[in-house]
Structures are given as structure tokens and as C-alpha cells.
Records
---
Amino acid sequence: MDSKVTAPSSETLRTTNVLFCMLIFLSWVFAATASVSYDNKAVLINGRRRVLISGSIHYPRSTPEMWPEIIQRAKYGGLDVIQTYVFWNGHEPSRGQYNFQGRYDLVRFIKLVHQAGLYVTLRIGPYVCAEWNLGGFPVWLKYVPGIAFRTDNEPFKWEMQRFTYKIVDLMKAERLFEPQGGPIILSQIENEYEIVEYEIGHPGVAYTQWAAGMAVGTHTGVPWIMCKQGDAPDPIINTCNGFYCENFIPNRNYKPKMWTEVWGGWLMKFGGPTPYRLAEDVAFAVTKFIQNNGTYFNYYMYHGGTNFGRTSGGPFITTSYDYDAPIDEYGLPREPKYTHLKDLHNAIKQSEEALVSTNPIIASLGQKQEVHVFKSKSGVCAAFLTNYDQQYSVKVRFGNGQYDLPPWSISILPDCKTEAFNTAKVRKKTLSMVPWSWGFSWESYNEWVGTASDEGSFVVKGLKEQVSVTWDTTDYLWYMTDITIGGDEEFLETGRLPFLTVASAGHALQVFVNGQSVGNAYGSYETPKLTFSGRVALKPGVNKLALLSSTVGLPNIGLHFETWNAGVLGPVTLEGVNDGKWDLTKWEWSHKKGLEGEALSVFSFKGSSSVKWTGGSSLAIKRPLTWYKTTFDAPEGNEPLAVDMISMGKGEIWINGQSIGRHWAANKATGGCGKCSYIGYYHETKCQSGCGEASQRWYHVPRSWLYPKGNLMVVFEEWGGDPRGISLVKRTT
Ligand SMILES: *[C@@H]1O[C@H](CO)[C@@H](O)[C@H](O)[C@H]1NC(C)=O
């Protein structure tokens, strides 16, 4: 058939016109709604107000192999959003050299969340605090000339802007912002800055203005938030972090009421208590927030995970970052918290339409009881019945019904009639650690004890700050000097050993004289500084004093924490030689960074064969500075695994060459508490259980790091331990 051009019939024209108009209309609708915005009530996604339930999951704190299951569990637990920080020091370990691989594969993590049908809140920071080494800042940033962190400082702002753009550009290139079809609905700049701003005044105010402008200027297409920032410049939304946030009010009446950190648990420190927060109280806090106009809340943490390697901050933050979260360190649901909050989320979702369409009307139901009713014009209705009494249950009447309210609880009635959930009515179930195998066959190798003449060391007059020497490539720095007793003028007081005093800026110290350990000292999270003092045996002639200083995570919080020192800075004094006191502080000191075993990578398969190990009856027991190694086959099954380090002191653990973190059997502070709870505004610190036990006993061994057979486990022990007490355990019901 000839193709003939014919004039279109009027019918066709009409159809085309209609189609054309529809197209215009659709693209207009699309342009107007494929976006994220906000009003005074809520965040709007695609033009619709939402109640958004969110949880923090930090990608480097679990393995990529664990991510899909954790995300699925979060979804099943009723979350809409995953919130994560971005970890600058993981992504840019050396300036200009980026790492987005493995646990730092941020794009993969976000895409997995997207595939699961959830949204993302990206807290770029790049200051993140997070109990993470140096608050997320790379150590090299400390040594940029003229820098001062988190203030109106040009070098800092330059680096912060560079990294913020790096992340935003990466997200844009991968089309991950919501208007591009991706899952990111919100981004955060800075983090809990208000307290610093308050302390430093004008430069802080200027910095806040700059940070806000810089962030908004990246044009992500989604709103920016600043948490704990009462003066967050428009259009940035200031948000609340805390145990309770129902009384929080945004700084402008056109911003929604958002809670970026619901502290459903707390961080743990070596030597500190194991914090926990009752599921009932978390549910109560969240429900109170919702019934008072809140429409976005995020559990910090929903899954805490593990501070693998030397990523934990503090100092003295434990390797475990479990946080008493609804999904535990190992990726399993923590009951009853997980299910209780899932039930809560369900009830909130059933009430969503009423919650986003109107403000509550509050009425009294008794002396300490009230009701919040959300009744929209369209007829939907949700009610929250609250009993603020911390001791007594009550029966209340509402509408045509009667309801039992336990003490300190709220009932949610998504249809204003039927109780779907009460914050205090919980179902129970727990998990435990089950031993799988003892009887590892251990071998040991003795670490070198510093002597001043060693290679790789340098000598200076006086003592150097530790991190300025190590740049945090290792926890360890040796300080060594010779003490010579001799000549006519020097004598030791008869009958008494000389008294050595060593003051250190932190965080832990071991003292050796002539190769023999004479003791240790350590600081704490609250006071990293420490002083060693003790009598030491010196002989006539040359005595070798060797101080091994170790860091336990660099500070992540506090005013100009980048300037806080670590290591032996003195004074170092010796009394009882001659009749006076010798000040060794300005003597010549040899500095040597790291351990011999670290230099040889004895924790790796290859490196472990470079030294001679001894086993059997020659195994070193309770000896300071000892490396241990063993090989083992992976236990069958897929339950998560941990090593029980109860018989060991302090050091680090490697599995197949990868560090699972620092271990330390530091006891829970005496007079502190085994468990702490946060109930009804009060932070209870009375000892409830487990006082005097190690803060952290179990250390997560990711399944994906294991081969079926012949796995290498290496432990470095600083203080002395008995490896025969180490066992592998499974986390099961
Ligand atoms: C909810 O928001 C409205 C409008 O800002 C306000 O008038 C009302 O007091 C708020 N109610 C509660 C319980 O916070």
C-alpha cells in the first residue's frame, strides 16, 4: 500500500489535543509532586503529608553481607526511613584518596534501602560525633595548616565544603535523591552544633550561617535538617535529639516537628555500665511525641552494630555499638523491644491520615489522665489516651468505651474506638549466647619490649604528643630513655626503691624497666588523663625505661576536641636517687611508633609466618605484650558468632587479617551500675545487675569474614591474659 499523507480527521485531532493536554497536565503534576517538601505539619513526599518512622543504621558498623537482612528486618519492624551518617574518615583516609568499597560502599547501601522500598535520611555532617573515631573527621584534617574544626575557619570550611560536595555529587550521579527517583528524602548538615555555637559565640553564629548556605547551595532537591540547632537558618529545619522530645518546638511555625534521635538506648564505654532502656518507655516517649504534633521520629540506634578495627571514638567507647537497639549488634531482633515497637508503628500507621490532617484537641480524663483527639473534617478520627501516673493503673471512659491504662502509658485508638496498642503492654522473649566450642590450640609470640637504641625510632629532647607522631595509624607509641645510676654524686636511698611518676594525657600506659613490666595505668571516658606512680627497681649503671602509651579511640565530642592531646607529655619524675627529685621530662627521649607485630602484620596469613610462635608447654600465659594465634573451622549453621574474651586483658583481635576491634575486660565502674535505665525523665544509675563484670565480654565475628576451614584468629594482649579461656559462641534463641 502506498503511504499517503492524509489530513487528520477532526476525531484524531481531538484525541491528540486531549492527549497533549493530559501530557502537559501530567508533567505539571509530576513536576509539582515528584519532590520532597514540608509544611508546619509534616514532611510531604510527592505532595502528600507523611508520618515517617525512621531508624539509624550505620553502614560501616555491619558488613555488606548483613545489610540486606538488617534492612528487611527494619522494614518488617515498620520503618519507612533508614537514617545514616556519612563517615568521612572511612571515605577519605588520606586526603584526595577515596574509599567507597566494602563496609564503606555507601551507594550500595542506599540502593539496597531503595530496593527494599524504604527512604533514606542522609546525615552528611561531615561532623558526625557518633562515638566514632575523631567524630568522623580524618586524622590528616587535624594537620592542615591553620585549621580549627567546626568554626568560622577558612581551611576547615574549605575541606568541609569539598567533602560535602563530593558526597552530594556522588548521590546525584547515582540518581539517589528523591526528585531523581531515588530514596533520599532529607539531608543533614553539621550535627548538634548549637552547644558549640553557644560556647564560642560570634564565630559560631557565622559558621552556622555559612554551613546552611553552603548546604542549600548544593541544590539536592530535598530539604536539609540541622539537629539540636535552635537558630537553623531558613529553609533548614531544626530537629530534636533526646530521650523525650514532646515539648520541642521548631524555630519557625512553618516547619514540622521532627525528632532525629530517639535515644532508645545508650552508648557503652570500657569500664562503664551496660545501658538499657525499657521498650515500654521508648514506646511511651515516641507516642507522647506523636500525640503532640510530631510527624517524623528516628530511633538512634535501630541497629547499632560493631565498631570494627579502631573505628570507635570516645576515647574508651567499646567495640560493641549495640546500643540496646531493636535490632541487636548481631543483626537479630531484640525482644521484646523489636516487636513492641513494630506493634506501635502499626498503630501509628493506622492513625496516619488523622495525624497529618489536623491538630489534636486535648481533654482531661482524670487527675493525671488526658486524651488527644485527632478528628479531621473528612471524618477520620484517632485518639491517644494517656496515663501520666507513674504508679497506678486507671480505668478511663472515652466516647462509649472504657479503657484500662497501666501506669505511665498511652493507648492508641486509630478509629477513636478500638485500642490497637498500649505502650506498657509488652510480650516477652529473649536471646542468649550459647557456647559452641572450646579448646582452641593457641601459640604465642612475644612482642619486643622497647629499648632506646632500636631502629625506626627517633630521639628528641622532651616528649612528643602521641597522635602527632602516629597520625593514628596505630594505637601504640613507645617513649624510651636511659637512666644512668653511677659516679660519686649519684646514689640510691638505702632500703627503698626509687619512686617513678609518669603523667600522661591518655589513654593507657604500661611501664617497663629493663624489659620488665612494672605496672600500668589508664584513664576513663570522663578523664582520659592518667598518672602512673610506683617504686621501680634500678641498678647501678644504665637502666632502660620504656613507656608504652596506647590510645583507645580518639575523641569525638567536645569543644575543639581536635586539639586534645594523647600520650606521655610529662611531667616524668624520679625520686629517691640522690637527695632530690629528677625531672626526666626534658631529657632525651627515643620515640618509636607501633608494635613490631604490627609492622610485620603477624595478624595476617602471610605475616604470621614471619615470626616464630611457640605452643604447648611454652605457651606464654599472663605475660604482657604477647601475640596469640590459632586456626579454627567455621561452626556449622548461620547463627551470628562472637568470641568470648572473658579470660583476657586488653588489646585487639583479628580474624583472617581483619580487625574485629579492641578488646578490654575493663570492669564496670564500681559504684556505677550494671544496667542503666531511662524512665520518666530520670536517669537511674543504681546498680541493677552485673556490677563488677567486664563492660564488654563478647566480640562479634562476622560470618562473612570466615572460610569454612582454616580460619586464622590472632589476639594481641597488652597486659596479660590466658587464651585458653577464649571461646567461640553463637547468638541464638
Ligand atoms: C499542635 O500544633 C498547633 C499549631 O502549631 C498548636 O496550636 C498546638 O498547640 C499543637 N498541639 C500540641 C499538643 O503540641
---
Amino acid sequence: MVKQTEKEGSLMSQPYYRPTFIQIDLQAIKTNIKHLKEILPESTKIMAVVKANAYGHGAIEVANAALQAGATQLAVATPEEALQLRDAGIIADILVLGASPISFLHIAAERNITLTAYSFEWLFATRHFTKPFKTHIKIDSGMGRIGIVQEEELQAALAFIKERDWIEITGVYTHFSTADEEDEHHLKKQIAVFERMLHLFEQRPAIVHTSNSAATLRISDQHWDAVRFGISMYGIAPSPWMEENLPFPLISALSLHTEVVHVKRVKKGATIGYGATYTATSDEWIATLPIGYADGFLRKLHNQFVLIKGKRMPIVGKICMDQCMIRLDEQVNIGEKVVLLGKQMNEEIRIEEWANALQTIPYEICCTFSNRLPRLYSK
Ligand SMILES: *Cc1c(COP(=O)(O)O)cnc(C)c1O
């Protein structure tokens, strides 16, 4: 399928043969960032969150696109993810949001990777490392995950840092647990806790940041110095409630494609797939698609539809590891284009629809697409 690669204007150099792929619209990502910039105060920086391979979209490509569109720094979850970006030649500031082991500290310092100081204990464990390194202090204001909860612990941490001028506190941050919900009660409480903790700093660090996508899009005046823009950079609302309350329309970047590889007419009574769970109720056209649960097209999606010629066609039978079957309303050619997620003509299947079917959130679906699916990038 090198032909496809060229036609889609991909940045991928490897040829692929199976006509199943994820298409990433980098312009959509850039436009979402541009629209965000328009509503943020000029002094508020955008930190593009590209953890988990940029929510399945491809970390290096998304990071570069985000930086081109005006994001000035990047956030990832793990040391490995930070190194992947550095190895790709990205020089922007990178913050590791998760807990990094102290064994990574000397590499972080060498490669200008900022780590999260999430407890006094973590800071104390750095005491034998006396070269300059950068960290952001994480306050747990009510998420209950990582971060400093008690004022005394923060005071001890600040006293520890004060005696060590090689520790560079370039930021302080917290994370909200309910910013995507209509009820603001817990969010307001978290903001108040964070502000109280900020008062303990003699000198406020350069980059104070609190807001994930949900908080970024719902409150305009509480962003401090930077926002951590994740899910909505990819064009996805953080929650159904947020979807109804967006300050600008989001453009989704990801679509999922395949082609019909086999078409047949089956007789009434024919069964389809493992377990013979589907029986044709009349003579029917059945097509086979080369995508299955090993790609992230999960078995629980068996009641879903796919788009062919701009129309919804139902999946029939169980989704296999590498293939699945659909029922057609007419014969189609081998090679007919199929959209599993995204737009085709006037019809669209959105990731939220899958999220409902799977009783999960779009975040999880993005991260579930396997490496077997090539990501193609349109410019
Ligand atoms: C993942 C993450 C974000 C981004 O959240 P979105 O809801 O995707 O915008 C921000 N901050 C932290 C600490 C995170 O772990």
C-alpha cells in the first residue's frame, strides 16, 4: 500500500500492505491550539500534553505540530516518553507529569527534562545528586494521586530546596479531578487549597499551572502561567457536559479507515463468525474487513456500524482478532473505502459513540489503538 501512503501525503516512510490505518489530521490539532490561543490571555503558555504516544495519535508528529501552532512546552507521563521526544530532536521544555525514579535524575539533568517533585521523600532522595536539575513541585489539592497534601510537608520541601541552589524550581502545579463536571464545588475547593499552598513560597516559581483541557475551556481567568492542554488538543471534549459548553468548536484529528477485502452473497440461514451467533434472515450481501480486536476494534463494539458510501452498515457476528464482517445493503466492490471512525460524505461516526457502546471515555479508546495500525499524517 505504498500508493496509499503517497496519496494520503503521509510522513511515514515504511510501506504497508493491509489497507487499515489511522489518519491523523495535524492541521486539526494546530487549529484547536490556535483557537485556544485566541481565548487565553497573551501571557498564558500552552503546554501540549503528548503522553501515551499523544493519546494514540503519535507523540513526535503531534509534538512538532503543537509547537509549530504556538504551544511552547510539552508534558508526558514517563521518562521514556520524554526521551523519545528528545531523541527525535525536540528541544522544547518537557515536563514528566508522573513519578520518575531517582535513577533517572542524572539523565533528566543532562537532557533538560523537568521532573515532578511530588513528595518531600522524593526530593530528599535526590540529596546525593548535586548537579543542577529542574523540577516542578506537584501539589495534591484534592485529586488524591501524587503530590504534596500537607502544608508542613511543603514547608519541609521548600526548606530542603533553599539549602541546595542546584535544585531549580521552575514550576508548581496541581491537577483537578472534576473540572469536566457541571458542579463546581470540588473544583473551587481545589483552587482554594492550591492558592493557600502557593502562599508558602517565598518566591513564586516561573510557571504556575493548574488547568487540564476541561478547566482550560471552562474558566478563563484562573490559568496562572500555563495550561496543560491534552484531550481537546486532539479535538475531543473532556466530557459530554463539556461538549455542550465549549467556547469554540473542536476539530477531531483522528479517523480510522479500512477497505472491503471480500464480498459474498450468503443464503438465508447462513451463519457468520465465531460461535455462529449471526444468522442471515434472508439472502444477504456480507463483506469482510481486515480489522479486529488486536487493532483496538474491540469485541464489545459488535453492535456498532461502519460507513460505506456514506451509509451506516452493521457489524454482524463477533469481531475476530484481525477481521470482522458487516452486512451490506447492496453489492460493493473489493477495495471499497470503509470509515470506522470519522466522516464519510454526510455521515459521521464519532469516538463518543464508541465510548457509549464500550461504557468508557474517549480518552481510553484513543490509547487502545494498537501499534499494528499505521498512523498516516495529512499535512
Ligand atoms: C493527562 C493530564 C493532563 C491532560 O488532561 P486532559 O484532560 O487530557 O486535558 C493534564 N495534567 C495532568 C497532570 C495529566 O496527567
---
Amino acid sequence: MALVNEHFLKLPNNYLFSDIAKKVNTFKVTHPRTEIISLGIGDVTQPLPNACIEAMHKAVNELAGKETFHGYGPEQGYSFLAEAIIKNDFAPRGIQLDTSEVFINDGAKSDTGNIGDILRHDNSIGVTDPIYPVYIDSNVMCGRAGVLEDGRWSNVVYLPCLEENDFVPEIPDRRIDILYLCYPNNPTGTVLSKQELKKWVNYALANDTLILYDAAYEAYIQNPDIPHSIYEIKGAKKCAIEFRSFSKTAGFTGVRCGYTVVPKEVTAATLTGERIPLNRLWNRRQCTKFNGTSYITQRGAEAVFSPEGKEQVKETVKYYMTNARIMKEGLENMGLKVYGGENAPYLWVKAPGGMNSWRFFEQMLYEANVVGTPGVGFGPSGEGYLRLTAFGERSNCQEAMVRLKRWLKG
Ligand SMILES: *Cc1c(COP(=O)(O)O)cnc(C)c1O
């Protein structure tokens, strides 16, 4: 008899985005002629930079020739891409990395979800709350999160990010083995200053904590003082793994490419206290379970760093951040409290009159025909908020503001 991994059965059946889809479908059935504007799901809408498209066409043609064909590639990714990443994303910020410390993957979701493979099942976990659900659910699947009690997992330490603390989590009063940080943050759209991030690195160094740092949205940072990488902080190479993605930067959500930095210095302990470099374990894990990202994709990602690619990415980021500004100003003019949207493509909107997240969501759907994401779906501290994304078409963002204004006035 084959036995199932029963930890999977602990996961609640309701997946946030399928719950939303159900409610939107119900609305559509009863209002067939109403056009809905979706500012809910965090997918991008602008096409890939032309530089990436051209590079991928060229790579396809290479595969057609005997001399230029590429079969299985290195599981860690091609060095041409790792070198371009180091040269463009890290060296200009004074961060020295070796290509063996950069692992190319098929996106940040895969690696943030799989990194737990190389860590014991009984480590304690800390997350900022609200949070990207992958961090918790992937720990539930291996039993590391414990059991669900009143919407909270028993082995997870929740660090609330609320209006009262400006959405900056407080340093916990106890030690945590593994801590997830995501900045710029999904869903709140808020960032950590260098000073604040430094506190976390110092906490990690003092408490022997491993930080899993998700920087998928670093390209959206506008303020020059905000760190793009955790390695801008001294000592971070000893305690942090960083995840990056081309998804939100260059429209690769369908193409699939990202990377993970595992510095040689970052270690974790065995029960007898021996320190093991995590780079070695992650390399072993990837070589066994991952086939690498396709050659075509990696050539496309490399082109993100070409002069044309950089220019095109800059334009796309500007487009989305202009959406964010239009929406933030619009919502604030309506008297709503809005956070984020200045260094991230997300707006975190406080529901007026103490309404809860789902009620705010439903009223906005039925009365303004605009879809957001209920904040409580990202964790208990998200209750009373709604996330709007700036990834839509400009005209949709503008029309959404007109509708919301009409609704809130009425
Ligand atoms: C979108 C997103 C990612 C990127 O995921 P990919 O798998 O690279 O597409 C990673 N982390 C967060 C928090 C995200 O919102």
C-alpha cells in the first residue's frame, strides 16, 4: 500500500485565486453585460522586450544547426547568463560573486518553494505577515509548519506588518531558524531601508538564522537609498540566500527564468554542530532534481542586460509605475488610505469604515465592477486590506479610478 504525504492534507482546500475566480464568475453569470476590470492577479500585461525576442529567435536557429545545437545544459545554468547577472545586477552595487554562487532556474516560485529540501524538517520558520503564500505552503507540505490553528500555523512565527508599524516588521524577541523576507514586498508594496535591512542581517548573524530573501521586485525600486540586494548589507553573505526573477522585471512570467544566489559562505549546522555550506547542498539538489532552464530562455534572459534590453525594461517598469502613481493619487483623492505603490507595483488599500477584506472585495466587484485581491488571503494581518496591482493596461487603470470614484461618492 502506498501511503500519501499526509502533510498535504493539512493545506486548506480553498486557494485564494480560485475563490476569487468563483466569485467573479458568479457575478459574470448574473451580470452578463457588465465589463469587469481586473486589478487582482499579479501577472504582467506588457510584452517581452524586443531584445529578448530577437535573442530567442537567434537561439532557436542555433538549435537547427549541427555545430550550434545545444542539448542538456548545465543544471546550474549557462555561465554566459551567470556572468551577465553578476556583472549587471551585483558588481555595480559593490557585490562580488562567483558564477558558482548563481543558480539559474525556471522562476523564483520554484526555488523559494524547493529550498526547504536542503533544510531539516524541524527548523522553526518566521514570515512577515501578510506574505506570498508559497513560503508557508511549501513548509506545510513537508510538515515544517505544524498544524493550522485559527488561521495560523503552529510552528510559524508571524511578524505582523501593519499600519501601526508602517508595515516594517519588528525584530522578534526570540530566535528563529529560517526567516523569509520579501522586499519590495508582495502584497503590501512596501520596502525596507538599508538601516532596517541591516537590523535583520544583524539579528540573523547574532541568532544563527538563515534569511531567505525574495527580491523579485527589485527592478521597481525608485528611491536610490533602498537596497536592491540583501548583499548590500555587510555580513549578509554569511546568512542569506537571495531569489530573483525575470518575471516581473522583463515580462518572463510565461517564458520562465529566474535565479538564486547561494554564497559560498552561507552555512547551516548538522545536529552535531558541523557547519555545512548550503551552496554544496543546493548544487547537489539541483543536479539531481532540476534539468536546467532551456538554452533559448537563457539567451532571452541574457538579452535583458544588453543596452537595448535595459532600455526596454526601464520603459516597461516606468509604464507600470506610472499606473501605480495614477492609481495611488486617484485612491487618495477619494479619501482612501493607500500604502505601497512607490517602489513596488502593488497598492495596499485600507478598506473604509473598518470593512473586512472580503466585504470590500465584493462591494468593489458588485458596485464598481473592479476586481482586487482580499488582503486576508495573504495572512491574518492582511485583514481589512485589498491589494491592487499596477500591472494592468493604462486605460484600465484610469477607467477603474473613474468607477471607484463614482462608487465611493454614491
Ligand atoms: C511573482 C513573484 C515571484 C516570481 O515568481 P516566478 O516564479 O519567478 O514567476 C517571486 N516572489 C514573489 C513574492 C512574487 O510575487
---
Amino acid sequence: MSPQPVNTDTVSGNRGLMIEEPLIFEMDVRGRSGVDLPDVPKHQERLGKSKRKGAIGLPGLAEPQVVRHYTKLSQKNYAIDMSVYPLGSCTMKHNPRINEKMARLPGIADLHPMQPVSTVQGALELIDTLAHWLKTLTGMPAVAMSPAAGAHGELCGMLTIRAAHLAKGDARKRILVPESAHGTNPATAASIGYEVDPVPADERGRVDLKAFKAKLGPDVAGTMITNPNTCGLFENDIIDIADAVHGVGGYFYCDGANFNAIVGRVRPGDLGVDAMHINLHKTFSTPHGGGGPGSGPVVLSEALAPYAPLPYVTHGPNGFDLVEHDGDKSFGRLKGFHGQMGMFTRALSYMLSHGADGLRQVSGDAVLNANYLLAALRDDLTAAFPGTCMHEALFNDDFLEGTDVTTLDFAKAMIDEGYHPMTMYFPLVVHGALLMEPTETESKIGLDRYISVVKGLAKRAKSGDAAYFHGAPYHTPRRRLDETLAARQPILRWKPEQSKQAAE
Ligand SMILES: *Cc1c(COP(=O)(O)O)cnc(C)c1O
């Protein structure tokens, strides 16, 4: 006799450590608070009409409730502190704890951006020292420190390029962007009114040089090219590309998000780059994900430096100063203040603790790890391009042909195995792309465990077990969501019937 199937639903909806959690507002008890404060003594009301009329509706909870709430929410998250985070293009590397210690020093953490410069000389020196390292590592003469992320850096670089053209009375229209580019590149160019002209990739996964040259003309303001590119490959025609765009009077914007692959080995300034953002939160280990904060300083060539945004730090006989106003060349301000001080501190801490030789080893180890992954998985998945890679390994979905399993199904199955999925369906130039970036901070043991899981799943997909993949994930707090709907109409309550009522 076969055993009766057992209903494994729990009374509470919790499943072991997977604990359901109401919204913090649903736990609200008016008047409850974490601390007892004395009654406000009698005072003269000076706010007049601007005084608040009633309570602002903050939930009332005791301290242990708040701690438990956020601890439980944090446990629903995946983090680099838990395991390999193979998202390609994102460079999810370990954030050394020394960075956190430095960023929390009261002299840094308690600064106010409006303090007089005489009281923040140390902070300005820190920004200036970080700027010096960035200029040295990239071989570029200037850097704008204020952009708050990579995409913001792109905006900074492109506004600088536009200002340089306008200063010559030459309002150019077109920006050449390879088809493999990160979506932020065309979005940035388009957002400030440029017309984006896509350049195809060749069969080697690199910019098609002939097609690129054919598109050049006097209306081309410049090009935005990622190097190493999003296929994980070094653009080896890069100097020809730079020369060609300069030949028509355009500028070369380099997306430097993948600088981790070449830091300490190649200086973008030697390749003819005019502007390049550096994601401190990728290459220099400051934490990211979940919406920030990031930091995206932009290094600039001699030709573009005069158009850089305000403010910037200078060093004179009386110490450090902030230049808040310029002649009329700067394109203006990009951000309220001077940049992300906490990220600057972490990035400089990372640089100083590694030293120049350590940073060079970072890129070497990152490329080695990616190639270890590529070599180990090459026979089970299908490598998108022959040969070795830079910092990330790119596969296409040929290995899934005839299995009825898609890249998305494969990624969902990885969640059940306890891994964050790799980047999927990007870059667009590769069909069903799976892009994996291990970074240098993964150990061989950690990579081997990851590899055995990916290999095991590939074997399972090829064995005809498509139904398993279609149902995955099985072991998560929520199963497969309608991703479009989940993004537009998120259901945040743990009891969906309450949500329904709320929606009605
Ligand atoms: C991450 C990334 C960006 C954008 O950087 P953000 O800091 O996320 O704004 C741009 N281009 C590439 C290639 C990237 O990987």
C-alpha cells in the first residue's frame, strides 16, 4: 500500500525559519513606543500656522518588535555575506570590514555637508587623496567626484561632452553605442537629447570596427563604449576606435563599470578615453544592491576637464578648499553636495589596505576566477565565445535546446539551490544569455560548490526533467511570481485576502 500523501501546510503559514511577517503598520499599537519620554514642558508656541495639526501616523512598537521585524525582513534577503553572488556586470564582491570601521569613525560619520571648510580639512584631504588614486590608476588628469552612481556618472560625462561641443558652437546630434551596451548607456544619451545610433557586434562579441567607422560623421558627438565589454571581453580595437571618433571631432566616453578586470594593469587614459565613470561600489568594494548608495566618480581628459561639474576640491597654500563657482565653463552642479562621503571613505580604505600591488592582484584574481568558471562549465553549458574571458563568463542557451527549459527556468532552479541567479538575458547580443561574474573574493572551494550546482542543474535539464524546472522555485517564501504584475502591483501583505480588501 502506498502511503497517503501528507498535507504539509502549517497552522501559522510559517515553514521552519521561513517566517511570515506582517507590515510594520499592521503591528501598530497607538501610543506604544520603544522609550519613555517625559511630557513636554509648557512652552511658547512659535510655529504658528506651520504647526502640525495631528499625529503623523507612525506605527507604535516596542524596541524588540522593531528589532525582530527588521531582522526577519533581512533574512528574506540574499547577500554577498551569505554566498556567491554571481550577477554578471554587477561585480558583487566582498566589502572588507575595515571599510566599515573607517566609515563609522565619528570624525567622518558625523560630518555635516554645510560645515565651514576650515573644519573639514581632513574630509577634503580624503576626497583629494581618493581623487589622486583614481587619476593615477586611470592615467587621466582630472576627476569629477560628485556623481552618485554609475548611471549618474554617465550623465555627468555626457553633460561634460555636450558642454565641450557647445563651447565650440557645435551642437552635435548623434552618439554611437554598441548593441551589447548596458541599458543605462543609451538611456543616458537619449535623456539629454542625443540620438542613439546602435553599432552591431561582430562574431567575436566585440564592436564591429568597420560598421563603427561607417557610421562616423561630423554630426557624431561621441561614442559610449564599455571596456572590458558586457560580453566579458576586452575590446582589442579600442585604440583604433578612439582614434576614429577623435578623427571626426567626437569624444570617447568609456563605461568603466568593468574596471575591476583591468585595475592596475591598463590605464584607460592610454587608450584615448575622454571620460569614464568608475563604480566605487563595484571595483572598490563599497557595498551595493538594494538601491544604494553608490558612487560614480568620472575621470576626464585634458580636453573635457574645464567643463566638469561643481563643486571640486583644490589644494592651496592655506589648505584644502571647495570651488563652488567657476567661470562659465562648468556645466553646473550635478548634486546637492560634494559626493558620497561614506563611499569615498570605504573606497580609499580599500585602496590603502590593498596598496597598488594589491589592486593589481585584485584584477588578476578576478580574471582568473572568471576563467576557472568558464573552463569548468564550458562542456556543460555553452560558452558564448571561444577563448578566454576577462572578469565574467558568458554562456548562451544552446545547451538547453530541445529540453523545454529556458534560461529563466534555470535561474529559478538556482534559487532553490541557495544561490542568487546569474544575470539573465543580458547582454542582448547573446541568445538566452547567462552571465556570471564570480569576482576575486570567491575561494576555490566556494567556486567548486557553485560549479557543481550549475553542472548538476544542466544535467537535470538535459535528462528531460523539464517539469521540475517549470515549477521552480519550490523552497522559497513565495513561488514563481508574475514578474510584470509583481513589479507594478506588489502584494506586500502576508495574508493576500487582506491585500485584496485593501485594494477594493
Ligand atoms: C553597473 C553598471 C552600470 C550602472 O551603474 P550604477 O552604479 O548601477 O548606476 C553601467 N554600465 C555597466 C556596464 C554596469 O555594469
